[in-house]
Automatic annotation (TrEMBL):
Matches recorded under InterPro entries: Arginosuc_syn_C, Arginosuc_syn_N, Arginosuc_synth, Arginosuc_synth_CS, Arginosuc_synth_type_1_subfam, AS_cat/multimer_dom_body, Rossmann-like_a/b/a_fold
Family statement: Belongs to the argininosuccinate synthase family. Type 1 subfamily.
Binding site for L-aspartate: T119, N123, D124
Entry protein name: Argininosuccinate synthase
Subunit structure: Homotetramer.
GO molecular function: argininosuccinate synthase activity; ATP binding
Record: residues binding ATP: A8, Y9, S10, G11, G12, L13, D14, T15, S16, G117
Length: 399
């Protein structure tokens, strides 16, 4: 019986070329595994057939949209996960899910290897292989694009020569990765960070400069999870899809950034993540209302570490699991409603309310009837500043 390799298949250039390339050089049968994580505009049946047309002996498609929404996007939202404080780790969130199914299918079908179409310059090679190593350490990983230093122009020539059914061409050289949480575009003229992105790059968002009426939306959260939009209850999958529609129509969620890749290089990336950006903004405002000051401050440092760990491919690592436990505990009181205005590329919170609110109007108001005991402030300041006062007597700072 011919040995088998299970390959993570996206339907794009690299994985389409990787199927025949791997088959030629290893002599092993390639089984393509495509995971539906809500990549808009992709017909998964066409993706399945494309893998067979490229030489796969079997092509499997798994609908993992609800799993992705519930088990990966919910934790990311609770963590307000944004790499470098801006990017909502779109691609990094799908990789551990894909890796989990890669390892499972490989075991079920008796394969001894998994494969992916990553280059040696990107983050995904680390994410796939580290995740598989954490889940199924007996499996080996093969990366034909990376291991053969197959550049993009050579891959395109190979695809054209072998008449592989791919969409990329020398006239359209972009590399695109997408799921329901967002869309990433790179390569081509974008590799020069001085070049401005053009409107044709975007699919999830409308041009934010076009004048249109603002959209007002109210999002209901229960323990950190969005459960309703404008009073209509929805599961997480439908919330994300609806917010992509509403925020995307207003051009919310476009990002143009130079990010620090795990492999040590800087990369210029164009992202659009309307639902992610809007929901994270709403969630952070509800946390401002419901979390104690010290918890909120500390959680911000945890959020940075959580996003770094996931970006770096350590979803299944021990530290990430421990941080999940802390974050889940912080969300016990993060329930309520957030009102938001979506308009011309911005998602602006205009109101928030919660039965778990720590906001006390009688303490916060400056009007008559304020219950805050201002006489306590003087003694508090004396004690708070006492260490500074004592050290100043010793050090005699110059003025």
């Amino acid at each position: 019986m011919t040995e088998r390799i299970v390959m993570a298949y996206s339907g794009g250039l690299d994985t389409s070329v990787a199927i025949p390339w791997t088959k030629e050089r290893t002599g092993k049968d390639v089984i393509a595994l495509a995971i539906d994580v809500g990549q808009a505009g992709e017909d998964m049946e066409q993706v399945r057939q494309r893998a067979l047309d490229c030489g796969a002996v079997e092509s499997i498609v798994i609908d993992a949209r609800e799993e992705f929404a519930n088990d990966y996007l919910v934790p990311a939202l609770k963590a307000n996960a944004q790499y470098q404080r801006r990017y909502p780790i779109v691609s990094a969130l799908s990789r551990p899910l894909i890796s989990k199914h890669l390892a499972r299918v490989a075991r079920e079908l008796g394969a001894n290897s998994i494969a992916h179409g990553c280059t040696g310059m990107g983050n995904d090679q680390v994410r796939f292989e580290a995740a598989v190593a954490a889940l199924a350490p007996e499996l080996t990983s093969i990366a034909p694009i990376r291991d053969l230093s197959l550049t993009r122009d050579v891959a395109i020539e190979y695809a054209e020569k072998h008449k592989l059914p791919i969409r990329q061409s020398k006239k359209s050289p972009y590399s695109i990765d997408q799921n329901m949480w967002g869309r990433a575009v790179e390569t081509g003229f974008l590799e020069d960070p001085w070049n401005a992105p053009i409107e044709d790059l975007y699919e999830y968002t409308q041009d934010p400069t076009i004048e249109r009426e603002p959209t007002e939306v109210t999002i209901t959260f229960e323990q950190g999870v969005p459960v309703a939009i404008d009073g209509v209850r929805m599961n997480m999958l439908d919330v994300v899809l609806k917010m992509n529609e509403l925020a995307g129509a207003q051009g919310v969620g476009r990002l143009d950034m130079v990010e620090d890749r795990l492999v040590g290089i800087k990369s210029r990336e164009i992202y659009e993540a309307p639902a992610a950006i809007a929901l994270i903004e709403a969630h952070t405002h509800l946390e401002d209302l419901t979390l104690e000051r010290d918890v909120a401050r500390y959680k911000r440092t945890v959020e940075v570490e959580w996003a770094n760990l996931v970006y770096d491919g350590l979803w299944f690592g021990g530290l990430k699991r421990s941080l999940d436990a802390f974050i889940d505990h912080t969300q016990e009181k993060v329930s309520g409603e957030v009102r938001m205005t979506l308009h011309q590329g911005r998602a602006v919170v205009t109101g928030r309310r919660s039965a778990e609110s720590l906001y006390d109007f009688s303490l916060a108001t400056y009007d008559t009837g304020n219950t805050f005991n201002q006489d306590s402030a003087r003694g508090f300041i004396d004690i708070w500043s006492l260490p500074s006062k004592i050290s100043a007597r010793r050090d005699k700072p110059e003025l």
